[in-house]
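Reviewer 2 asked us to include a model.

Predict the structure of this chain.
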Amino acid sequence: MTTLPTTTALILEREESVLRIWLNRPEARNALTAEVTGELAAVLDAVRDDRTIRTLVLRGKGGVFCAGGDIKGFKSGMQGPGDAKEIARGNRSFGDLMIKINEQPQVVVMLVEGGAVGGGLGLACVGDVTIVEKETRFQLSETSLGIPPAQIAPFVVERVGLTQARRLMLTGARFKGEEAVRLGIGHFIADGAEDMERICKNVLAQIANCAPGANAITKAIVFEATRRPRTDALDFAAEGFASCMLSDEGREGVSAFIEKRKARWAVTAE
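Predicted model (structure tokens):
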């Protein structure tokens, strides 16, 4: 079993094949600091190759998902002479974290309640499955602060499309859970925290029926399809298919189908 890193800004709870990751700065509405992002990156790296962990569930403590960047931290960074290259490097590092979450081999489930502002909305956009509470407040507020939503912009565009992304970013529009689902940010709408957990439980049960190795390869194929020429993407997919077919998972899945029984991974996930 993977040894998880020690964290203070995050709370980690593992149950069977599910690792729950709680953003643990409720007093600051779970705003993102270097400590939060550094610990989250370390956790993702630690579990990346562990197929006994099938699902990561990200949620915020205190009934709030994430208020985005730490604005107080921004202000303190502006007090000095200012080094544009240093600021750019710091900003770019969050983009690396977004890529890491987006392409993590495990299934990533986001439970979004209370508020998802700025970078918090960006995080909601990189969940494989995002469940939003209907009263959750969403906003891309960066331009109202005189800055662009730099590192989350590509992921928001990918999620909602160019036209809607432009509107949301250039107007700082505020909206709630139902519109978030209409836009494609969320997949399911929940009526309160209890309903969110109910929906999450159903999603986890569905994931448990899927082979973890096959899910990891599938995610890789999905992303390679967006950045390779079509023939190259199909070659990559064929290699992934062959690898899965010859794996223990592939052999077990085919045998289970022929024998009309559940595959071992589905049985052990119950």
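The chain has two domains: 10-208, 212-268. Strands lie at 10-15, 18-23, 55-60, 107-112, 115-117, 129-133, 137-139, 174-175, 188-190. We have added this to the supplementary material.
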